[in-house]
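REQUEST ID: PR-0412
SUBMITTED BY: lab tech R.K.
PRIORITY: routine
TASK: structure prediction, single protein chain
INPUT:
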Amino acid sequence: MKISEYIADFLYARGVRHVFEVLGGMTTHLVDSLYRHGKIRIVSTHHEQAAAFAADALARMTGVPGIAIATSGPGATNLLTGIGSCYFDSVPAVFITGQVNRNEMKGNRPIRQAGFQETDIVAMATPITKAAWQVQTPDQVPTLLADAFALALAGRPGPVLVDIPMDVQYANIAAPVPAQISVAASLEPATADVARMLEAMRAAQRPLILVGGGIRAARAAEWLRGFVAQTNVPVVNSLMAVDALPYTHPLRVGLIGTYGNRWANLAIGRSDFLLVLGSRLDIRQTGSETEAFKSEREIYHVDCLADEINTRVTGCHAIVADLCAFLTVAMREVGGKSFSARADWVAEIAALKKQWSDTAELVGVPGINPNELMHQLSAASRAAAAFVVDVGQHQMWAAQSLEPGEEQRFLTSCGMGAMGFALPAAVGAAMAHANQPVVVVAGDGGFQVNIQELETVAYNRLPIKIVVLNNRCYGMVRQFQQTYFEERYQSSIWGYSAPDLARVAQAYGIESATVSAPADVPDALQKMWAEPSAPYLLQVMLDTFANAYPKIAFGRPITEMEPLAKPVDMEGT
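STATUS: complete
OUTPUT:
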């Protein structure tokens, strides 16, 4: 069979049922073979970045590496932001790029390119992939594909890129598709280390578990919930782990970090023990004052990569292990000896939450309160499989106040922080759960980055409910300028513009509406959900100067947050 036919068979054997792409000359053999194969749905997006984000979201939802295909030159380079997002957020994906014929490559000659659109995508992608390879001969393809899938899934998951010259794609091969691939064995913790951690946790008066994106990357949410039930320890979450516990879980505290729920940051400040699971404790979680974050509390830090432990926050007890393996051992060690409920500590946190309500941080803001909107959106969206959230102020309001259900996912771009993520990612999430709607939460700025994917939604009639919070500016940067640049709003307000996004949606054949008064929100959400299987866009008009609060006052401990505290220094991140 042709190499391109082999690739189609291989992908299907690995559980791939969707491939995202934008067609180009150097991928025609691949796309034609996928079409003739007939068992993998080819989803044609309208920008390669969108294809990468869709593959990212599908992988997060299913655990099967996401697949995006792009042609040489601009097609391949357009993938890079999405590849980087997968890399930083630990998402397994295999990106396949077409390349010019081998006899058209420049090789070692000191010229810029030989073949039309020839571009060294391998060199460009290497820093943001677990590996990037160019196929040199047809007989390399079976091994490289198997290695790509195994590596994408092993350890800390991530993307792999395989660049395939066009003449290799139509070469013939006789190799059979392997029945399975070999993935590296799970990294087990030392039982003695786990036992010491449990002893310290049991002795603590105010323990907390801090969960990061590693819980979802390791597909360990079920193990986490079992462990929490045994230990009765409250849980705070990073932005990557908003959905680690359902909103109604009695031990779910809330979001921590730069824009964390004030009560959750205060709970960290009062805790005497912290178990960190799958978080790198970056500055957006700890604030700039790492010594204040560490304080006198005992911290056990579990991660599958030793280099992620004791980097910013030092003095932690390191446990290098895969999270599923760690939690399995921990639950075995706890056995039938469940921890006490620590009612006083749980009540103390509940009192903090009551005192510092998320919906009261913006008291007096004209018009719709964005935190209240998130609670209303959650109540109306119980049928959704996922909330897919873009990057900006709305991302923080969503993480602070959305109420994920037992099985609902919260997907966003964190490490890369890429505006334009949500709409194409929702396409991937919707493909993963064909019978369930997906909710997009975006801002008017980020939404315009990949607005062309409205056509992908419309063409495929995907059940995506799009909520665009339109504050007529790049809100997060506008807030930064308000704090540090004497309210000079160049390029965030001055020089920025957006169309009427409801009318844009209508041009794509998607029903839409606009709401601007708080009293009209319930009816608007009810109308959005009147036909669950149909796409819909709801434009929510917000005050331009509504800020994302609370926010750590930069240069101060995590417990001191704006607007009650003022920054000491200018943020550098």
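NOTES: Residues 364-549 form a domain with the Rossmann fold fold (CATH 3.40.50.970).
REVIEWED BY: pending
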